[in-house]
């Protein structure tokens, strides 16, 4: 295993780098997480251990891990930056990211844990014809994970260039990629879970300390703080500075700045968040790591406490950067939080926050890699290709390890290729696909007796393809001023396709069902309902 | 690095059903079975028809459906009000405005609803447990 250390460290710290406190703290994180991987690798024997951490993760641990899986660099650096530059509308993102967990809590977490094994397709496979449904679910999972991962990796590369002078984009992407492969291939779900737990603790403590420093700057007076937010100096005409009320809505989604489409775009984003989070494969797999549905429920509540506390703190990170640094003095939007840390806490705190940002990216990409490889091995390889039978002991785990390696390698290559392209929209696309393809079929499978295989295949297919097409036609990809991939006026006015693609996914699932005469799925509805609501067959009840 | 005194992380509650099958010759364990094989694990239709089970389902839906509707309406009221009624939302209340207060209230709405569900779900657990424990053989081909 010391080979791993040797293999991973040079990628993160190639020759010719400047040794900064930030790099030191990052390396410390790498050493600790590799130690955990080594510890997990010795424990990870058997499929249940590899894919689901032996189902031995406790409620609070899984709550932290769900939070760690979910709070990506996009939320930590991106939302803080957005609030610093656009004020209130940035905070609207924060709200949606938490409220989305109510869908997870009320609708999907417990039935999924009770009726499934490793992936969301397990739940669908109970009633529906397993092979076509698993093939489509696996395709959707791989698509969501890959899009999300590329966005994270490109972001990681860009971030490292800013935080660690001397480390190139390629080296940073390769370093992040190699580490994520090592965590997943050798440590499996157990190592991935602990990486996420550590990251969540680091992120929460860093944000809390930064929030306290911001409040201290305003003598712990909320009145002073919000007064300052009321008059943030921003660049006006002719290089002058004008004061702007940053608590006023409308700088991103206002009717004037968006030619009337803003509020609808915001609702569309909200729909993708509220229905997409409950369909994100890397969030769903987390519920298989706990012993039972009750623990799954408790872990969502823990996650909501942590995620909510974090997003409330974006008030201090974002508005703090806006008032103390002012937008004019922040070089890059995403650097708002680290620069604020530098201004208030000095070089060492800047280093700590930078290391937290790395940890954030690493934990999220590791979670994505394991959910993608699990879905490939369990859904596609074992169940679609080999009719649910391992041909040799341990084959499923071996295939998952190879898949994780391939997924990681592809993500590294794509992230290096896409270096110069703004890929932030890929995160939105991942949520849109999760909300339009995955969620409708999960919900209909659990609650609609008549739902059948054709409906699931149509729902997954139309949700997936519809979201991708609408994103390609949207202002995120088409821009008449050449600011996006395609140099032409957008054919679809909204950046977030959810408001159209989610009803489309449900409609396709419904019509697909009705157009088929297949009624075989109704026979198993009783079985799925009993399993999902009692946990019978998933394991013995806890008190037995 | 986290310490774990128990060398085997597989918990006792699920160990029997969760360990991977080692060879084809052995009978698949209950949870290893594919949907087709596991179909006789219990008499699903009989359980589904029980009044206790129907009561559990009804109680769950009676909570989950209104709760979901409530949070969806409460949440989407925010973009609707901020988007189309900005004058109303810009109204000052103390040091902040209505828009910020309403956004902040969403966090507490989510937490309170989650807490209420947690309390409520304890009853569902008890009901589900009663149904499962009254079966003679909860696992392995109860007829």
Topology record:
The complex is a heterodimer of chains A (544) and B (143).
Chain A: H1 2-12, H2 21-43, H3 47-52, H4 59-70, H5 73-86, H6 88-115, H7 121-127, H8 130-163, H9 169-217, H10 222-230, E1 232-235, E2 241-244, H11 262-276, H12 281-284, H13 293-325, H14 336-385, H15 395-417, H16 425-447, H17 453-472, H18 498-515, H19 520-523, H20 525-534
Helix pairs in contact in A: 1-2, 1-9, 2-9, 2-14, 4-9, 4-13, 5-6, 5-13, 5-14, 6-11, 6-13, 6-20, 7-8, 8-9, 8-14, 8-15, 8-16, 8-17, 9-13, 9-14, 9-15, 11-16, 11-18, 13-14, 14-15, 16-17, 16-18, 17-18
Chain B: H1 12-18, H2 44-49, H3 51-84, H4 86-89, E1 92-93, E2 96-97, H5 98-133
Helix pairs in contact in B: 3-5
How would you describe this structure in keywords?
heterodimer; A: 544 residues; mainly alpha; Sodium/glucose cotransporter; 2 strands; disordered N terminus; B: 143 residues; two-stranded antiparallel ribbon; 3% strand; disordered C terminus
Q: Would you kindly provide a written description of the structure presented here, covering whatever features stand out?
A:
The complex is a heterodimer of chains A (544) and B (143). Chain A has a single domain, classed as Sodium/glucose cotransporter (Up-down Bundle), CATH 1.20.1730. Chain A is mainly α and 544 residues long. The N terminus and C terminus of chain A are likely disordered. Chain B is elongated. Chain B is mainly alpha-helical. Chain B has five helices and two strands, in the order H-H-H-H-E-E-H. At the A-B interface, helix 2, helix 3, helix 6, helix 7 and helix 10 of A face helix 1, helix 2, helix 3, strand 2 and helix 5 of B.
């Amino acid at each position: 295993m010391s080979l791993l250390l040797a293999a991973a460290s040079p990628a993160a710290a190639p020759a010719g780098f400047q040794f900064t406190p930030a790099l030191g703290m990052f390396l410390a994180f790498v050493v600790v997480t590799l130690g955990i991987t080594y510890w997990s690798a010795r424990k990870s024997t058997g499929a249940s251990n590899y894919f689901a951490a032996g189902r031995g993760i406790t409620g609070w641990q899984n709550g932290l891990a769900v939070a760690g899986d979910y709070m990506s660099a996009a939320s930590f650096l991106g939302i803080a930056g957005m609030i610093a530059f656009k004020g209130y509308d940035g905070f609207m993102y924060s709200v949606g990211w938490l409220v989305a967990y109510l869908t997870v809590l009320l609708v999907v977490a417990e039935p999924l844990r009770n009726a499934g094994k490793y992936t969301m397709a397990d739940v669908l496979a109970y009633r529906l014809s397993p092979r076509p449904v698993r093939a489509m679910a696996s395709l959707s999972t791989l698509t969501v994970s890959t899009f999300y991962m590329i966005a994270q990796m490109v972001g990681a590369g860009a971030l490292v260039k800013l935080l660690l002078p001397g480390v190139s984009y390629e080296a940073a992407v390769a370093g992040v990629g190699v580490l994520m492969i090592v965590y997943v291939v050798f440590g499996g779900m157990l190592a991935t879970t602990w990486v996420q737990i550590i990251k969540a603790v680091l992120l929460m403590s860093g944000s809390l300390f930064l929030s306290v420093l911001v409040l201290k700057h305003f003598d712990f007076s909320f009145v002073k703080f919000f007064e300052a937010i009321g008059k943030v100096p921003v660049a006006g005409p002719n290089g002058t500075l004008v004061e702007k009320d940053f608590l006023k809505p409308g700088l991103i989604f206002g009717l004037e700045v968006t030619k009337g489409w803003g509020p609808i775009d915001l609702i569309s984003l909200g729909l993708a968040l509220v229905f997409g989070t409950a369909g994100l494969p890397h969030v769903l797999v987390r519920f298989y790591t706990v012993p039972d549905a009750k623990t799954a429920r408790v872990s969502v509540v823990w996650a909501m406490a942590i995620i909510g506390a974090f997003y409330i703190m974006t008030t201090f990170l974002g508005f703090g950067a806006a008032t103390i640094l002012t937008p004019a003095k922040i070089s890059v939007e995403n650097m708002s939080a680290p620069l604020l840390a530098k201004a208030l806490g000095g070089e060492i705190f800047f280093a700590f926050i930078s290391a937290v940002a790395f940890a954030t990216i690493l934990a999220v990409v590791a979670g994505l890699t394991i959910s993608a490889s699990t879905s490939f091995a369990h859904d596609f390889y074992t169940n679609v290709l080999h009719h649910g039978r391992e041909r040799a002991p341990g084959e499923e785990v071996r295939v998952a390890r190879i898949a994780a390696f391939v997924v990681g390698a592809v993500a590294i290559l794509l992230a290096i290729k896409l270096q110069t392209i703004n890929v932030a929209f890929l995160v939105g696309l991942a949520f849109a696909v999760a909300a339009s393809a995955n969620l409708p079929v999960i919900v209909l499978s659990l609650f609609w007796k008549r739902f059948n295989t054709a409906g699931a295949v149509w729902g997954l297919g139309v949700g997936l393809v519809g979201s991708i097409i609408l994103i390609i036609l949207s202002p995120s990809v088409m821009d008449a001023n050449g600011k996006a991939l395609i140099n032409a006026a957008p054919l679809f006015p909204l950046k977030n396709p959810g408001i159209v693609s989610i009803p489309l996914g449900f409609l396709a699932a419904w019509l697909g069902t009705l157009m088929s005469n297949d009624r075989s799925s109704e026979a198993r509805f009783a079985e799925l309902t009993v399993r999902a609501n009692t946990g019978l067959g998933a394991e013995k009840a806890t008190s037995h | 690095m986290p310490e774990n005194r128990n060398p085997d992380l597989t918990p006792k509650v699920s160990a029997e059903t969760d360990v991977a099958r080692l060879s084809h010759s052995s009978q698949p364990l209950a949870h290893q079975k594919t949907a087709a094989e596991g179909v006789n694990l219990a008499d699903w239709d009989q359980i589904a028809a029980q009044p206790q089970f129907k009561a559990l389902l009804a109680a769950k839906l009676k909570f989950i459906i209104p709760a979901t509707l409530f949070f969806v309406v409460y949440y989407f009221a925010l973009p609707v009000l901020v988007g189309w009624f900005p004058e109303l939302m810009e109204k000052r209340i103390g040091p902040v405005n209505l828009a910020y207060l309403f956004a902040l209230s969403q966090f507490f709405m989510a937490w309170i609803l989650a807490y209420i569900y947690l309390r409520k779900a304890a009853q569902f657990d008890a009901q589900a447990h009663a149904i499962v424990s009254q079966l003679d053989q909860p696992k392995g081909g109860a007829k």
